[in-house]
Design a protein that fits this description.
The protein has helices spanning 24-46, 58-63, 91-110, 114-120, 124-137, 159-170, 216-221, 305-324, 333-345; strands at residues 7-14, 66-68, 77-82, 145-151, 154-158, 177-190, 195-200, 205-211, 226-235, 241-252, 258-265, 268-278, 281-282, 289-293, 298-302, 346-350. It is flat and about 65 Å long. The chain folds into three domains: 7-173, no CATH class; 177-252, Beta Barrel (OB fold (Dihydrolipoamide Acetyltransferase, E2P)), CATH 2.40.50; 258-350, no CATH class. A five-stranded antiparallel sheet has the order 2-3-1-4-5. Helix 1 crosses helix 3, helix 1 runs antiparallel to helix 5 and helix 3 runs antiparallel to helix 4. With 354 residues, the protein is of the alpha+beta class.
């Protein structure tokens, strides 16, 4: 039935009508979830550094885009090719590896095999995003449409089995605890209970945070300001913070400028010809601090200023490796333009040995 390794067949079944159709909203959600899963696995395969807010690069989007053939006449089957093998000489090999990882993740979920799933996606941040993508691929119960996914001619997913397995797969992490930083506006302080309440703008709800006595001075320094609270965050079923315990740091938002002067890259120093000043801004959720400098391809996000600084250093290294020192023939016209912008702005200094 399927000859190419990078081809997946999506077979939809409907109980709400005898006609062969799939509502556009369901088809869009399935394909969007599948594309997100493929992109995450592609970034893992390509060694793209994990970010707090993973953004797919143009190279990944082009190389691993889902290419859908028309529905077969009289059926509700859709042929989906993962990726465009013409993007570079190793593309087909990479695409086959990512397709294999996609199928492996499906099998790991069906067998509730966390060990295999973790090997395919080692990073916990990206792993949780991948699980969410697989949740979106499968149509919800009660809408009258089910889905089977075939790879290499064999079924790898069907709705009922996958939904049941996914529930069991998620049980260990249904309530997750992570040490994170959350941004909100301080609304109340209860010194007796050692509890503060902040307004969390993402959900427009109040969030209770329990702290140790040693940080009360920090509270008094930041009354009713937009503050960052770092502690053990408990998430609800929709992956929003529910409460924060063990608060160990409270700080005001620091949006003072970043100055690009020099960065370490492997055994070299990347030194800017002229100092570049970047003004950080908060995103629409007020949770992420953002830095952008389109001329040099800089676009980074992080929850705290320290993390943003680390992300910026990683970004400069990635840009230098992927563009500045890449051969021209391997780059698109836009990528070459970025390369020479980088070379005009930065020069490489060998670090002294010894």
């Amino acid at each position: 039935m399927i000859e190419k390794e990078d081809t997946i067949v999506l077979r939809f079944r409907t109980t709400i009508s005898k006609t062969h159709y799939v509502p556009a909203l369901i088809l869009t959600k399935v394909l969007t979830g599948m594309q997100r899963a493929v992109n995450l696995l592609a970034m893992q395969h390509e060694g793209v550094e994990v970010r707090k807010k993973d953004r797919t690069t143009n190279v990944i989007e082009q190389k691993y885009m889902l290419l859908c053939s028309p529905l077969s006449p009289g059926s509700v089957e859709l042929l989906v090719n993962i990726g465009d093998p013409s993007t570079d000489i190793f593309a087909q090999q990479d695409i086959n590896a990512v397709t294999s990882s996609f199928q492996g993740c499906c099998q790991a979920i069906l067998k509730v095999d966390h060990s295999k799933f973790n090997k395919l996606m080692p990073d916990s941040i990206r792993r949780s995003r991948l699980v969410k993508a697989f949740q979106d691929i499968i149509p919800k119960k009660g809408i009258g449409i089910s889905l089977e996914i075939f790879g290499n001619g064999s079924p790898i997913v069907n709705t009922n089995e996958f939904q049941t397995a996914l529930k069991e797969f998620l049980i260990p992490s249904r309530i997750e605890y992570s040490i994170l930083t959350v941004t909100g506006r301080l609304t109340r302080i209860d010194f007796d209970a050692r509890k503060i309440t902040i307004h969390y703008p993402v959900t427009n709800r109040e969030l209770e945070c329990y702290y140790d006595e040693s940080i009360e001075d920090m509270l008094l320094e930041n009354p009713r300001e937009l503050i960052q609270v770092t502690g053990i965050v408990v998430f609800d079923e929709e992956d929003h913070p529910q409460k924060i315990s063990g608060v160990d740091n409270i700080t005001e938002i620091d949006l003072s400028p970043f100055y690009l002067t020099e960065f370490q890259y492997e055994e070299q120093t990347l030194r800017f010809m002229k100092t570049i000043t970047l003004e950080p801004k908060l995103d629409e959720t007020q949770q992420l601090m953002c830095l952008e400098y389109p001329l040099l391809g800089i676009d980074v996000f992080a929850y705290t200023r320290d993390e943003l600084d680390e992300e910026l250093e990683i970004e400069i290294g990635v840009l230098w490796r992927n563009y500045a020192i890449e051969r021209d023939e391997m780059l698109s016209p836009k990528a070459k333009e970025l390369k020479y912008n980088l070379l005009d702005a930065i020069h490489e200094v060998k670090n002294a040995k010894g």
